[in-house]
Structure formats: structure tokens, C-alpha cells
Specification:
By secondary structure, the chain is α+β, with helices and mostly antiparallel strands. The chain is built from four helices and ten strands. The relative contact order is 0.20.
Length: 284
């Protein structure tokens, strides 16, 4: 658990440096001689969310993650990669050690469906079927489009939060449930059994939305919200624990989230791929 926390915090701090490193590595890789061909496969693992409802990198609520990998190898170092990904993320203020967040008492869960395109660079030359060039660490970066839909539980029923305008959005001005993201990550690749390879990787996304968790800015005026959206919207907007006087924290304009930092999510997984290009014959 400590290792995963370190990886998550390191990934968050290094995201601005990753793109520059990858671009330099990509141009270096072009000089490596070719082993062209497609490989396809899948992966499974876990998904993590970090944002307004998980500000301290709590790793106690992983969700399942799975996906499809399609990779075209230009040579031993450089590849163009496509992916279709699924992940389930969630968070709950009850898991926070911050007293304000505990009293705020917000929570959510969301399924994520994503399509991505990335360039991938191997630090070492990798050739399928080789006894010498069968292992490499690698990095990748690119862009994705993902769909999400945050929900929260009320009386045993999971309620979609976007249509409720929980931060006072007018009807028609709700945040979009489809959004672009910048994808980056690193991993270790191991060629086994000639055409087959294993991939162990960590990937993360820099999002353009701060509403993956339905939390971003301030509490709305409850009277206005009720007139616009109804009683359920008011309940889901402010689920805070009342104080001794029975008052909740959701006064108009009071901080509900922090829109200065966007949400993000990460996948940790193991993948298996099959290579359809030319296989190097073993040497004796």
C-alpha cells in the first residue's frame, strides 16, 4: 500500500515532465532498425480516482479496470498504440482524515469508458522471439476521450448527479459527461513464448474537467436550487452532517470543492499481447 501511494504521488508531481521526456525519447527511437508489425491483446487491473473527494491519495477504494490494447510497432523502440479502456472509480468523504471533509460527507461512484491513442517508446530495443532483446521499460503519452457519469446513493438508490445541477448550474449548462484527457504512463514489457508478451504498467490522465466526482466549486443557494431542480437536488447537493444546532455547512458561496486542480484517474494493470509481425528465429 505504501508503494502504491508513492507511485501515485510521484505520478502526480511528474506529469509536466513526462511529455518532454517522451518527445526526446521518441526521436531517439526513430533511429532503431525496424521490426514492424501489429500486436493486440487485453489487460486487467485496478482504477484509482484522485480529486476533491480524495485529496490525500487514499488508496483504500480501488475499482476494477480492463481494456483492449492494439499496438503497431514501427521498430524495436517506437510504436503507435490504441486502447479501449473501462474503469470504475469511487470516493467517500467518510474515508478522509480531514475534519471538514468528513463533515461535508459527499461521495460518488462512476464508470469510465475511454478510447485512447498514444505513442510508446521502449528504453531498450525489444524484438519478439529474441533471446537477448526480450525485456524493456517503456513510457507512453497521448490523448483520449472518455465518458463518465457520477452517481451517489440516496435511500438505497443510486442517483445520477449531473441532471441535478448540484452546484447551481442552470438547466442546459451542466458539465459535459464526455471529455478529453492527456494520457501518460510507464511500464515494463517482457517478450515470452516468441509472439506473446507481458506488460506491467501504470497510467494516468490529466483531465480537462473537474466534475468527475460532481464536486468543483461552491454550494448553491438552496431555495434557488429547489425551485430549479427540486428537493432531491438540494439533498444531494449538501449531504453534510448537521452540527449541534442542526445546521449543515452548505451556505451559498461556501467552498464545496477546489476548481484550481482538476480531477484525475489512474490505472494499474497487467496486459498480455500477441504479435502478428515477423518473428525472429532463435540462434544456436
Amino acid at each position: 500500500m505504501v508503494t502504491l501511494r508513492f507511485i501515485s504521488e510521484f505520478s502526480y508531481k511528474m506529469k509536466k515532465k513526462t511529455l518532454l521526456t517522451f518527445i526526446i525519447a521518441m526521436f531517439i527511437g526513430i533511429s532503431s532498425y525496424a521490426q514492424m508489425g501489429w500486436e493486440v491483446g487485453g489487460y486487467g487491473g485496478v482504477a484509482y480516482y484522485f480529486g476533491d473527494l480524495n485529496t490525500r491519495f487514499h488508496l483504500g477504494t480501488p475499482g476494477p479496470a480492463a481494456g483492449f490494447i492494439g499496438r503497431y510497432n514501427f521498430n524495436k523502440r517506437l510504436a503507435l498504440r490504441f486502447g479501449l479502456h473501462y474503469g470504475s472509480v469511487s470516493a467517500d468523504d467518510a474515508n478522509s482524515k480531514n475534519s471538514y471533509e468528513q463533515r461535508r460527507n459527499l461521495s460518488f461512484k462512476s464508470n469510465i469508458f475511454e478510447g485512447a491513442a498514444m505513442f510508446e517508446f521502449n528504453f531498450l530495443p525489444l524484438e519478439h522471439g529474441s533471446h537477448d532483446e526480450f525485456f524493456t521499460p517503456y513510457v507512453f503519452a497521448g490523448f483520449s476521450i472518455f465518458k463518465f457519469n457520477p452517481k451517489a446513493e440516496l435511500d438505497g438508490e443510486w442517483i445520477e448527479l449531473n441532471p441535478l445541477g448540484t452546484e447551481g448550474q442552470f438547466q442546459g449548462d451542466e458539465y459535459f459527461l464526455v471529455s478529453p484527457a492527456f494520457v501518460y504512463g510507464l511500464g515494463i514489457k517482457l517478450s515470452i513464448a516468441n509472439a506473446w508478451s507481458l506488460n506491467f504498467e501504470l497510467s494516468s490522465r490529466i483531465l480537462t474537467t473537474d466534475y468527475l466526482d460532481d464536486v468543483s466549486k461552491t454550494f448553491p443557494d438552496k431555495d434557488d436550487l429547489e425551485s430549479l431542480r427540486g428537493e432531491t437536488a438540494v439533498i444531494m447537493s449538501d449531504r453534510s452532517i448537521p452540527n449541534a444546532e442542526g445546521l449543515q455547512i452548505g451556505s451559498p458561496g461556501k467552498q464545496r470543492g477546489d476548481d484550481s486542480n482538476k480531477d484525475y484517474f489512474s490505472f494499474i494493470g497487467i496486459g498480455v499481447t500477441y504479435y502478428f509481425g515477423d518473428i525472429r528465429c532463435p540462434t544456436f
